[in-house]
């Protein structure tokens, strides 16, 4: 069993598991942090960004004025932002049989994997994962295609040149593999390969393994996966949460008794408790509005935003923000808000019950009804005419490199009355803000990450007790910035197996058993004999028939009746010669009794030597060795066949025959 | 004793002696006993005033078929009756006593099995044992043996009562012996000779023999203590616990030589118990040792045994027990230096380990090691640290030479601990991995944070810690800013900040950065999602305004709010926003905080601002609109604060401020007295009282507070007479009181259905009456000036409280007429007229003379009614006795029982 690790990002995993002749890809997360190296894509012409000076090395030898721009003391690539893809050289992606998706954040690289690689398999995901994943992809494509950029910067990627570049660009890894965003056509094609599954539904893969998704409690439709055969069980835990937010609670008990548990997607903010962050979000929001400023919340169009809106729904009244408008701007805002309301079966119990009442599960419906929350596909159109300040704007993309958020940064960045509140944990807020410096706007970082923290995960692992745990290497040591915090790492016995990008792990357990079926007529013909109380053994001669990874023992076909005509006789048709099998031996040779028997047969000079597995008898006169071991007996007797036969028969006397 | 009750008692006794099953409820007997106890305590002899009791006791004791509860009651009653020597003698002579406390009697009747008989027996004896005769009776009857057996009774209540009884016996023996020895020899050496002198004292019964008996009792008890102290098996720990409690009680109360003797007897057993190392017994053992030790301290020379036990305790192996013991020792305070220093070291050890600061210069490696091991366990780590933190202030109170390190270092340790709690390891100087393992146990523990903040509050007063102020402020601001701080932790942080500000009045070390950070964090927290946090923040803003500090070296004194937050210009907008808070507690706190913030400007008589007018309007709005009582109460208190700060102000109030205050007060009085919440009404009356005081302080007859509370012969201080009795002044003031609505508020309060309101209003009206028209002056028209006072009128509208008042006046008028007809001299013509007029004047709002109303309302009688609690009738002994009789008659005539129940219903 092998695990190929194509992504080193702990929360955006992409691993391939080879298990029992199947090749299963577990998630295909897309590392988008690479976009932080690019200049923002303004929706409206920005004089500031268009007048940035190009970059020339200090000694003037490298001139990349066209590709790189100097902005706020840092160098950025002036090109369509590019993403860091999962590793594609580690194994042939066309051999992948299936892709299992655990949540909509972990499928953003799907088009890169399924298109143009020869992939012919199936993708399994739950319905909300597919639908919301599609929205997120559509949103990114839309953000990029809205602001087309003709040129594509490639010179800077030259290894020799990159070495000379300043700051983070110099240290960026695998820049050659970075790719521009896919097209909508590719998205559609990729998503057409998705087959929908429900929680606990069992999917057979070629009869060899069975996979089934379990609720993971992190987002709508998010799942962990169980991959099992008759005798082995692998659990894949990715992005799970034990908090009671909107999704169905996590199914923990089904993870019990795993041989291997692959653990990814723990919280990126182990020291930030989501409740505290939510409180921080609300108070900073209220503080800004009260002082007459605007609040900008860069966020994804699905996920935490539902909880934020729900929290605000309760908070609005208490903070007397009833008249402040809340805007949600995204090309998919409408669909996101509406989809969330229809996935009733994927919601937590509390919200499910609301479906039976005449009220929608999420309170944001009421906010929309009462006109407190308004959503628009973009800043253009209706929004510009209805826009009132002070207000709260939720919009993407959280990297601040593309999407409508870029416009608001340019618009509000200069006033200290305004506040930007980061809630998504995926990007370093300082890096995100880098091209906007100097910034007068207040900046608040309250990342809300509801995924498991180290305390919760160690409790979970204590309960489900997997034999082996595999996890990203980041989880096996405290974070670099807090090296004293030994509580911020996984401490397990045996220690977890760490992986990093491009690792290939031999998972530490051997397959020992295989299930083989026996046909009834064959079973009827067996004659078991009891070798010890409760254990009976029978020999069987049969033909193994293997199809779809199912093995069946069938009776040996009888020789066909002799053909009436011998004209067309062929060698192939000759029935195989059925040999009567030799009897099987069992039992052990008792040393004392054996020696006594040898003596009876005139062999007296026997030197007995004890070994690790049994004994060696040295018949000195005959220059012969007899090795008696637990699972075998060897008689080393050169050129004396009669003696060997005698000795053999003596040994056989002590053994049972089948 | 009430004559009525005495007359009922014989019949009640008959009922009880006949059958106990017909009692109204199971508390009746207890209530009856309570009443008897009260009567006895008042000095009345039960037997003399109720001779029927003797008969009752003797008849009940013979009738063992009675309900055990009646028998138990009788046992306890017998003890109560025999509490005086005379009654005891009477009971003994009638041979009742022997039978009542005869164990065999109860055992033969098969009643001893019932725990209520056993407890009755113990308590009866215990009550009786107030004089030597009873003690003699106890000794002669050899009750000690059964009493010792009862120590291990299966009923916990019986065992505990027996325990108490033993202590009582021992202490009685001691007091008798000491009386006996007092006359002769302090050391009590010559017992034989002393017997002669006893005859001269009040204890003629004591002879050499009885004295020996007492000695035997003491020996037997101490033997028993010694024997049962060390448990044979784990299940007997409870018994040891009981004995330890008893021992602690005895060692604290006994004197030499009994003390010596007790200690002598039990010291070894205590030592054995210590060595056994039962964690559950650490605290009770410590109590025993400390009881012995504190007794010891009075005698200057420390007893070697006690000292040895104490040293043993402070060196126990188990770290958790050790900390408990050290904490218990320090809590007692005032002890010998050696052990105090040792305890301090023990308690500082965990802090030393976690923070890595060298609080202790040397520590035994073994102790350190076992402590570290124990601290690695999360649960015990947190509880141990909390015990240590709770006791740190105690440590700093000890003498400087006992302290292993200066208080400043302890403050540093607490600060460092607080940083560790919030996951900040940057300042931690401990580098060993075991220490890191320990420190991670406390990350995010709000329990430790709370204890540490409390310690920080208490440490603020220690000498030399002021230098830590900037560091403390920085840390507290960080705590306030931390999104993960628990609301209670935030509350404590605010408290700590206020406390340090008030102790370290010199704020020159506070930087602008501190101020800015605090300003930001306070703004943020005032918008917090949790109302508790908003409440604490608002409260903090108010508290800070009440702390005066020296801001700069120029000795400029201001309040801490000004010094830290820039004062009103920052806090007032926040507080005004908080007035809109959806949570009523927050609104109430905001109003109080506003009062505290504005107090300074009121006192300085600052000119009125537009903002102030707006606030007052907002508050009046709250008073009339707010749905919750808290906020409305706070509004009334706000005006009380304003008014009192104005009246305490020496120079005359500026016109502007007054022009806003008085009309507002008028609204507050009218709205407040019509409020639904009784506390709002009581506060409103307090406001009215302030106005009364302002108007009449110095007037003859004016007595601040409750007029009925002053003794009739009390000397009235001269200051009260400084202002001469000037009727014109009185008329003027009374007129303004009427105009402000004070009189209406008082009158409406008088007829209020809430007793506290009515009571207060009644007292205030009486005060007013004493000033404007004292009853002692007789006729209203005694003087011309009085006539003027009498002309001051107030309105009585035709609804609500006024209708009640008018009814009362009308009734009074009718009574007066009737009274006149039988010839009583009541000079109250006008009053009658006014009353009638008032009663008949439906639609309009007729005016009545204030004086008339005051004099006609029978305030004294009303006060009398109001002072009694509402259940005084129901709870009287008379009603109890009646209930018992009624229940029994109902019981004897079953067909009427139903009726009674219906009646009760």
TrEMBL record, chain A:
Beta-Casp domain span: 305-433
Main location: cytoplasm
Keyword field: Cytoplasm, Nucleus
SUPFAM superfamilies per record: Metallo-hydrolase/oxidoreductase (SSF56281)
Stretches the record annotates as Disordered: 548-572
GO cellular component: cytosol; INTAC complex; integrator complex
GO biological process, one term: RNA polymerase II transcription initiation surveillance
InterPro entries given in the database record: Beta_Casp, Integrator_9su, IntS9-like_C, Metallo-B-lactamas, RibonucZ/Hydroxyglut_hydro
SMART domains, A to Z: Beta-Casp
Cellular localization per UniProt: Cytoplasm; Nucleus
Signal peptide positions on this chain: none
Domain of life: Eukaryota
Family in the record: Belongs to the metallo-beta-lactamase superfamily. RNA-metabolizing metallo-beta-lactamase-like family. INTS9 subfamily.
Protein name stated in the entry: Integrator complex subunit 9
Organism (species): Acanthochromis polyacanthus
Automatic annotation (TrEMBL), chain B:
Keyword Cytoplasm: yes
Intracellular or extracellular location(s): Cytoplasm
Matching InterPro entries: ARM-like (IPR011989), ARM-type_fold (IPR016024), BRAT1 (IPR038904)
Similarity annotation: Belongs to the BRAT1 family.
Annotated protein name in UniProt: BRCA1-associated ATM activator 1
Keywords: Cytoplasm
Organism field: Acanthochromis polyacanthus (spiny chromis)
GO biological process: cell population proliferation; DNA damage response
Gene name in the database record: BRAT1
Keyword Acetylation part of the UniProt annotation: no
Predominant subcellular localization, coarse grouping: cytoplasm
Cellular component terms (Gene Ontology): cytoplasm; nucleus
